[in-house]
Amino acid sequence: MATPSRSFLCLRHGVTDWNAQGLFQGRTDVPLNGEGIAQAHAAAERLRNIPFDHVVASPLSRALKTAEIIASARHTPLDVDDGIIECDFGSLEGTSIAETMKAHGLRTVEDLVSILPPDGEPWPSISARALSCVSRWFHRHPQAVILFVCHDAVMQAMSEALCGQWIDNRHGTLFRYDRAGDVWSVAEVDSLAPLSMSSLRTQGPITTGSCCSGRRQPSRFNRENNAIWVPAFAGTTVESSSGRCTPSPTAT
After folding, report:
1. Which residues contact 13 (CB under 8 A, 6 or more apart)?
2. Is 2 part of a structural domain of the chain?
3. In the predicted model, what is the mean pLDDT of residues 215-221?
4. Residue 79 is part of a domain; what is its CATH number?
5. pTM over 0.90
């Protein structure tokens, strides 16, 4: 597996109707809905203090439109790369995440990787191609700060491969995958605080946030409703008491 030579920025696309309905999307090209477009514009505004030189997007319209809005606001070059396209969920695409989890007795979305269908993409290949994509762009632009706009499964797979854990990945929220020597961490970026460009051009220090320990961590806990927070492909929580899956608008 190619490991990027330095830290990088990554952001999940805005919400779609399928996200809101709790459905697997994968390679199905579902566009942003009105809320998703608003999220993309809000992300562009929040990123005004975040320095970056280039935007690279997945070719799927929900990610590409999000990237176009962000790049246009900053007059930043934009390229498209298949290497960060969403996971192919095969026959699961268009079906309910919650019902799939219920049918298989799964408590977290992380566990879905164990029941992905044979007509879809193997989970390990997602991180392999995505991290190779990041590395290629670093090779082409050795000093550039690059923002990758892509998808939840791609970001989760990279976080798991580098750090051994998943992240609380909300739509339009910026994350920094941070390298310090051979140690990686992933943390949400505070968009109100200026971010040093030099720390992203070279191997910088570990940022504060969700530091990775090299093993899978349990899903983060949603303190508001006492449920396990699932970093959803499309918006799902699992009740901690019964294990019952329920769609959750707060997870989209």
Report:
1. 32, 36, 40, 58, 60, 62, 63, 65, 66, 149, 150, 151, 171, 172
2. no
3. 37
4. 3.40.50.1240
5. no
